[in-house]
Every structure is written in C-alpha cells, then in structure tokens.
Amino acid sequence: MLRPRIIPCLLVHDKGLVKTEHFKNPRYLGDPMNAVRIFNEKEVDELIILDIDATVEGRGPDFKMIENWAEECRMPLCYGGGVTTVEQAQRIFSLGVEKIAFSAGAINNPDIIREISEKVGSQSVVVVLDVKKKLFGGYEVYTHNGKKATGKSPFELIKKFEQLGAGEIVINSIDKDGEMKGYDVKLIEASRNETTLPLTAIGGAGKLEDVGELISKFGIIGAAAGSLFVFKGKLKAVLINYPNFIDKESLIKKYF
C-alpha cells in the first residue's frame, strides 16, 4: 500500500549543513554527515540532500562528498545539485544514490529527463521546481538559489516534465522557505491538479501538525521539510529530530 512519506531535506553550502530563509542567509548548522547518521538512527522514510553551491558556482557535483553520504546513508537517498549530463547522473547512481533531483539542469536541457529515465527508469528521476509568487498573481519558477527568474510557470513545467519521463515532482516554495508557518497549500493544490506523478512539497513546515494537514488534504504525498527537522523551539536551537515510529504512525493514522 502506498503511504505518505515524511522527508527531511538537508542543504549543503561550503560542505557544511545550512538552513536558509527565503533561500537567503544560510545559517551554518554543522557537519551534514552527522545529520545523516542521526537520521539513520531515526529510520526516516527518505532523505533529500541538495548541494546549493554547485549550480551557482557553475560546477558539477562533488562526487566524493556524494559517495561519503551514500555509503553512510541507510535510507533511500535523493541527491540534487549541479547535475547537467547523463554521465554525471550515471556516476551518481553507481555510488548508491537512489534518486537524482534536477532543477536548472532540467530547465536548461529538458531532454536530460527523457534520456536518464530511459536508461535507469523514471522512478529515479526527480524534478525540483523552486517557485515564487508573482507580484500580480500566479507563480514563477526560479533557479540558482532563487536568484534567476526563468519566466516559466511551474504548472506548465510539471506537465512538460511528466511527458518527458520524470518520476516525481518536488514543489519548493521560496516564499515559505524557513518561515515555519505552514505549507503553501494553494500552490501544492494547483500543482497536484496538473499531474498524477508522485508529488513532494517543501517549504514552510514548522510543526508536525503542518505535515499532518498536508497529508489530510492530499493523501499520498511527500511531506518534506528542512527547518522542522533541524531546529527545536521558538529560538530555533539546532537539534536534528524526526518523529519516532509510534509518533509517525499515529500522525499518519490521524490524518491519512
């Protein structure tokens, strides 16, 4: 039976674990490897790690860093950052990574989604759309850590990437990033209406009830979060956390 997934998302900047707000002002939190080890112990559903430097610096993935994470990680791992070629993707898969997340690389070269899905299967191909509200209504996709506007609608891109063979869409709200006040439900609902693919939402979760409400509304969905799983309390003390098995099952049972 398919179930909702509750997914921590880690951001890596200058090889360190960071958290941003509205994609700005990365706050250093520690060694990402330590977070991976803690999430291993907490038996998380899945883990997303995004290297937020790669695209901005115009470089490819740091394969050694990815290899270290993959060797340590005992849950399904999705990596994103700087992947622009089929060869890079194949090398990352060979290191033991289950999924690769594409953002700017897919928008600049959409055919890479088709090429990789044909080689390894669509279930391993994820497209991340970083989305911001437009001043006079609607939404627009950005790349380069929210600095570069694409002029493209997330809903048009969702349909396009589904046709090209993507296996999952991640909707990342720039406006909600780091606020810890709840997901952009309107954005997620509009995205859900455009595709039958597995959909994951990120941006805004501040408490487990936010995750529960997302599951209640959308059912089988990926509920991803950054701040929720690295901070604790109103003062945002750094604490890697995740609900234990009983609490997670109770949450899903209550809302699903």
From TrEMBL:
InterPro entries: Aldolase_TIM (IPR013785), His_biosynth (IPR006062), HisF (IPR004651), IGPS_HisA/HisF (IPR050064), RibuloseP-bd_barrel (IPR011060)
Gene: hisF
Coiled coil segments of this chain: none
Pfam family, one: His_biosynth
Gene3D superfamilies in the cross-refs: Aldolase class I
Subunit and interaction comment: Heterodimer of HisH and HisF.
GO molecular function terms noted in the UniProt entry: imidazoleglycerol-phosphate synthase activity; lyase activity
The reaction(s) this protein catalyses: 5-[(5-phospho-1-deoxy-D-ribulos-1-ylimino)methylamino]-1-(5-phospho-beta-D-ribosyl)imidazole-4-carboxamide + L-glutamine = D-erythro-1-(imidazol-4-yl)glycerol 3-phosphate + 5-amino-1-(5-phospho-beta-D-ribosyl)imidazole-4-carboxamide + L-glutamate + H(+)
Protein family: Belongs to the HisA/HisF family.
Record function comment: IGPS catalyzes the conversion of PRFAR and glutamine to IGP, AICAR and glutamate. The HisF subunit catalyzes the cyclization activity that produces IGP and AICAR from PRFAR using the ammonia provided by the HisH subunit.
Species whose genome carries this gene: Chryseobacterium antibioticum
Keyword annotations from UniProtKB, A to Z: Amino-acid biosynthesis, Histidine biosynthesis, Lyase
Protein name as catalogued: imidazole glycerol-phosphate synthase
